[in-house]
Amino acid sequence: MTLAATRRKPSLRGDGLGTVLLFLPPALLVFTIFVVLPIGEASWFSLFDWNGYGSPQHFVALRNYVRLLAFVPFRTALLNNLLVIAISLCIQIPVAIGAASLLSGPGRLTVVMRLILFLPYILAEVAAGLIWRFVFDGNFGLVAVAARELGMNAPFMLADPDLARVALMVVVTWKYFGFHMMLVLAGLQGIDPELRQAARMDGATGAQIFRHVTLPLLRPTLRVSVFFAVIGSLQLFDIVMPLTAGGPGNATQTMATFLYNFGITRMKIGFGSAVGVVLFLISATFSIVYNRWVPGER
Amino acid sequence: MLGASLATSLLPRIPARAADSLIRLAHEENGPGSVRLINETVAAFEQGHPGVKVSQLYLENAAYKAKLTTMLQSDDRPDILYSWGRGTLDAQVSAGVLRDVTATVQGWREDFTPVALDAFRIGDKLWGAPFTVSGVGFYCNKALLARAGVDPAHLASFDDLLAAVARFKAAGIVPIAVGGGEKWPLHFYWAMLALRLGGKPAFDDARAGRNGGFAAPVFVEAGRMLQQLGKSGAFQPGFAGAQAPDSYGQFGDGKAAMTLMGSWVMGVQKANAANGQGLSDDAVAYVRFPLVAGGHGTSTDTFGGVNGWAVTRNAPAASLELLHALTSPHYERTMCERNVYLPAVRGMSQYLTSPVLRQVATEIDASSYHLLFLDQTLGPSLGSVVNDVSFALATGDTTPEAGAKQIEDARQAEDM
Q1: Largest CB tally within 10 Å, which of A134, B58, B179, B233?
Q2: Among candidates A156, A250, A267 on the partner chain, residue whose Cβ is nearest the Cβ of B380
Q3: Are B71 and B77 in contact (CB under 8 A)?
Q4: How far apart, in whole angstroms, are the C-alpha atoms of residue A41 and residue A57?
Q5: Any idea which fold A78-126+160-254 has?
Q6: Pairwise CB contact (< 8 Å): B66 & A157
Q7: Each residue of B90-107: pLDDT tens digit?
Q8: Where in chain A is the domain with CATH 1.10.3720.10?
Q9: Rounded to 5 degrees, what are φ and ψ at B126?
């Protein structure tokens, strides 16, 4: 105890303090300038009716928030975000686990398949959005051609609120599924094969091994996967803009596109800041709750 | 940042030599014709002003509008900026970022058509200079009209329009192409219908909040008629998701009989056509927006936009000369000779060689009242609500009463 204390003291004053003084300020400064200050500023701006010119003058207290919560397009945006989260959790991640389990073995074909499934993730979001816009086009798109081949009327997917929402979900799943598959693959490779062999020798079926050995051991990986899926869904912006720009009407707005379309382009910086604050609160609450109450290890 | 500004303020002030002058020109022009003209003008200007350099900052339309607010308040602000006139201009003027150019323009203000110059006038001061006006009307594919048995001369009333839509549909032709997904093309219908119904007084009253503002019966009726048009199947399948360039291409490809658009459509329908050629000028007929029964507007009331340039507060002196070069009779004449845009300067329409464009230019020259695009002149916020409501009316997502009320509520919120 005494030894440890005497050992620690000089290290704090000497190298330890040096390290703190050398490495903490830059990170702290960057974090303060780019995270803390903007959040503080946005919270301040959100109390004003302000078009972005000069300094905010017209104080409106919480009026922006009151309007926001009663505003139908914002509710649509919020619901769309929740829908994306639900699709991510219920379809994207289970499919990623399935694909990863099938493709975890060695062999050239599995490597090629992994690469193909991972490719969409590498593609830039804007490019992906534009490509899919063509695919869904009711005149020239792949979907239209396929529908005509089947003798049906070509649907204009991006012109119908419900179909546009489906289209967005398809693109999001297609785009990010590969990322989750890779996470799960890495997780699978970290599982000692002997554990599965032992289970098999004990007479466990494939399904039982998956349920009682693989899945519990994948828990830390899935925890990260779910975290990324939720935060990614809340940030969803750059795929939506080229694909639908939040339309038709406001059917495919997300909170981020809503912020851009209703805050920035309409020069309602106070209102937009209120959206930003709400988005921040949702993300921060989720992060804290998730990290505190959803344990990674059993 | 503080250190830097402190250092700058402590430095001895050296007057910038003319030879070091750099003029930054920010705009959103990307059409080949207009880009060429700007480049030529800038090159000639640089040649005539040794030592003055002009750098151009191009941003795509939506990006330009979104970035401008921040850009104008930074140290890196452009010296000359592309502007749509009243609306956003008002906000920029009250923020004190623009330069009063009344005295500068004094020398050549008589050159401009009043309609164009008015877009840059606030009170008795001028905050910029226009270089083009545009007019909205129906551009019709003559061949498709003939095939459906529609005579462009008989599109004088809204009922004629509805009858024509029925004829097109019977002939298996898409009546009208519109980039509904972008919403603003649909606000052309709402605005023109309201203009035909109520004329100038309706808009003056609405803006001042008199007689119910934008919830007045005129605007409810305009909404009802737009909804009727939407229900009649006038617009192409999937119009609610189509972008403006999609609709230009469809018209240029001969896949839609008509399009209600600004005069720039003659250029972009060619550029967006699948074959890159589009419709030739003599294959297109221009028709004014029809009158409505019992309306107070006249057929000489026009609707469109004005574009020009504004100068920022601390721009170098040479910027004012460049402003002149970009709006001069010489510039305008070249612009007309090449059929790029309609002129903002008097007497230049005669140089347009495209008969369609000349027809539109003549119409604007003789305009009794030129209503500016509402999504510009009402400001970006209220203007966007007009676009939202126009879209919802055309797709049947709102009622005429609720739509009009939504716009009026937004107008009142602006006044608060």
Answers
A1: B179
A2: A267
A3: yes
A4: 14
A5: MetI-like fold (1.10.3720)
A6: no
A7: 889 988 899 999 998 888
A8: 78-126+160-254
A9: -110, 135
